[in-house]
Amino acid sequence: MAILLKSLQFIDSEKIYPAQDYIIENGEIVSSRPDNLAIKEEIDCTGLYASKGWVDLRCMMGEPGLEYKETIESLGEVLAISGFSKAVIMPNTVPAIQSKNDIQFIKAKASNLFTELIIQAAATRDNKGEDFTEILDINNEGVFVFGDGINPLSNPDRLMKILQYLQKFNGVLFDHSYDPLLALFGQIHEGEVSTMVGMKGIPNISEEIAIHRNIEILKYTGGKLHFQTISSGNSVALIREAKKSGLKVTADVSIYQLIFNDSDLSGFDSNLKVIPPFRSEEDRKAIVEGLKDGTIDAIVSNHQPQDFDSKHMEFDLASFGMIGLQTFLPALVSLSEELSWPLLIQKITSGPAAVLDLANSADNSLTIFDPSESWTFNHKTNLSLSNNTPWFGKDLVGKVKYVINGSKFIKF
């Protein structure tokens, strides 16, 4: 039995194709109708766009230990309704994801989810940047992505040795690179706004020094290094040069970094407190250029759920992070004039797939969405256990309508 998608416009990294009919049969997507094929359901997709299933390289859950923020089940529900067929989860749980038992626990609980969870295991014990985890042992459970998630690997010796370990099985190191001492006590981007509001700033140099150092270490060790959530124009330039020199280096950016800048923080909304912080408009434009020229490979949700008490307090005491999955498509819609749909789709499909070395693997996934449907993000529509976002209670434009991942088909 098959499903007929009528008048659907498909998008890939090259262009938006004219509307045509597509058949989904046994998880396979075809554009021609075989003879004597039984159609189970016909869906009118007039006005809808579709692409390969989306891939998120950075999202967080709370299970185990922080289930009040996000469970594996709630994360799975949010990922599905947000259009993602694959997602890399960070290891910042309690305890951290750092042993074979931890991997087996997550895989068992996530086995029936629509979205495939790709585990980023902790590179150092408890994500503290010192003692190594059992990297080779963890790899035997099928894990090939390692890092300390929201914590930077600021010890150069540890980063160097981890890069060497990962080459034994072609693993990739994910790092949120910044110098924590240069960012110490920082609340927002160091600049005119931080001076005006009297907040300790986080300077661009805290990120740029770490990225420069880590690139130099990569030159020495070899291996694959992926920079997460870059935010500085100079960081883009450093990564651009590293790529030109032939290093196996990739990068991503948080989607909200493309929408906000530091001037949006003058109202002290703690939902806008993130790390790296929103930078200057000049930095934002440099990141846009980095996406256009291929320096930045992916756009990520950087979904970081926080409970009510962590956010609703004085700005300098509030926790960093915001949720970003259900607002991901509306954010794409807002960016679609500055960055074309084919480019945006590339950064959430083939771009992240290449980072994970999945570019040539079979992928029978599809995300179908309406770029013009309006909806309200509130307690009724929010599937996350947290609501730390500046868009909560707002009317948004852009809604995922159908998702397909192999034999799994969901409509919303």
Automatic annotation (TrEMBL):
Residues of the signal sequence?
none
Dihydroorotase catalytic domain sequence ranges: 53-233
Q: Which UniProt keywords apply?
A: Pyrimidine biosynthesis
User: A Pfam family in this protein?
Assistant: DHOase
Give the protein name, as stated in the record: Dihydroorotase family protein
